[in-house]
Amino acid sequence: MPFFLITVFMGVGLRIVLLSFFILILFAVAFIFASQNNQVVELNYLIALAKLTVAQMVSLFTAIGFLLGLLVALLWKFVSALGGKKTLSQDMKVS
């Protein structure tokens, strides 16, 4: 049976198949977590109040953290691309 699955997915790429499987497992764990945590929590913003379940709060803050991390990584890559690469000898030049 596993040999059949390998030959079927050979054209797709093993990386995509493993990534899809990992995402499917992640969604299953998130669904189980959400079904077990239905307590309501109040979240006080600066100007508003929101009532969310624990699962919604975890999802919200995970998404915010992911987006902030992605933004920092992209900014880091953009700044390093603009600045160019300096070698150690260029930094240590004595004028």
Structure description:
There is one protein chain. A hairpin with a 4-residue loop joins strand 1 (40-44) and strand 2 (49-53). The termini are far apart. Helix content is 68%, strand content 11%. The mean pLDDT is 79. With 95 residues, it is mostly helical. The chain contains 4 helices and 2 strands; from the N terminus they run H-H-E-E-H-H. The chain has helices at 2-9, 14-36, 54-83, 88-91; strands at 40-44, 49-53. The protein has a two-stranded antiparallel sheet with strand order 1-2. The radius of gyration is 23 Å and the shape is flat.
Map the helices and strands:
Blueprint: H1 2-9, H2 14-36, E1 40-44, E2 49-53, H3 54-83, H4 88-91
Antiparallel strand pairs: 1-2
Low-confidence segments, given as residue ranges, are none
Structural class estimated from helices and strands: mainly alpha
Order of helices and strands: HHEEHH
Biggest sheet features: 2 strands, antiparallel
Provide the spatial order of strands within the biggest beta sheet: 1-2
* Rg (CA only): 23 Å
What's the shape? flat
How many H/I helical runs?
A: 4
User: Roughly what is the average pLDDT, rounded to an integer?
Assistant: 79
Approximately what portion of the residues adopt beta-strand conformation? 5-15%
Residues in helices, as a percent range? 55-70%
Distance between termini?
70 Å
Instruction: Say how many strands there are.
Output: 2
